Amino acid sequence: MQDSYRHKGLRKQLINLLKEKGISDAKVLEAMGQVPRHLFVDKTFENQAYKDIALRIAANQTISQPYTVAYQTALLNVDSTMNVLEIGTGSGYQAAVLSKLVNKVFTLERFKQLYKKAKKQLSFLGFDNVECFYKDGFEGLPEFAPFDRIIVTAAAPEVPDNLVAQLKIGGKMVIPVNITETEQQMLLVQKNKDKTIVVEGPKFRFVPMLKGTAISSNKINKFNTGF
């Protein structure tokens, strides 16, 4: 599968749609315009890759809705000097977008099937500043901490203390936290020297953040579509 003129045209249309929906961060929009989303989805869904919808991937998980990716990435407020920890590699698409904006991305995935596929694809496509790990996201990656930013791409029951501990002073974490079984509040967590500030954002829907690691999953989860 190649990145054709058609794909680039569809990507441009998607970026224009994201602008209409309120995404104004030029760097984020540029990064998403550079990353071929269709190369991170199953060939079955190639024709839907540039619609603003979530799509199923392996292990009954999803690749996030482009608006959700753009919103979370913009909220992180990153720059090219930063190291970012991502919890939930999934297809690898979010990590690829971040890789265009930061120094290095460390990304964790609990499903071995997804970890292996995303690692292979990210390497094949030349995203050399992304390092993948097969690991429980609740544990984070203390051996490489502290991080400038942390992004969580699955619904957490609460803000994990382990992850807050792995943020630098002045660092930020973007994480969706459950408010009901099917709905999450997007939170921006800022770790300051004297206290941690939590700012609430809009509501989204994500697949759940689960403990441990797994070979595969038989559970069918809802799409993580923002609304």
Describe this structure in words.
The protein has 227 residues and is an alpha/beta fold. It has a domain at 52-204: Rossmann fold (3-Layer(aba) Sandwich). Helices cover 27% and strands 25% of the residues. It contains six helices and nine strands, in the order ααββαβαβαββαβββ. The protein has helices at residues 5-20, 26-34, 66-76, 93-99, 112-124, 161-165; strands spanning 55-57, 61-63, 83-87, 104-109, 130-134, 147-152, 167-178, 184-191, 196-204. The strands form two sheets. It has a seven-stranded mixed sheet. A hairpin with a 5-residue loop joins β7 and β8 (184-191). α1 runs antiparallel to α2.
Topology:
Elements: H1 5-20, H2 26-34, E1 55-57, E2 61-63, H3 66-76, E3 83-87, H4 93-99, E4 104-109, H5 112-124, E5 130-134, E6 147-152, H6 161-165, E7 167-178, E8 184-191, E9 196-204
Parallel strand pairs: 3-4, 3-6, 4-5, 6-7
Antiparallel strand pairs: 1-2, 7-8, 8-9
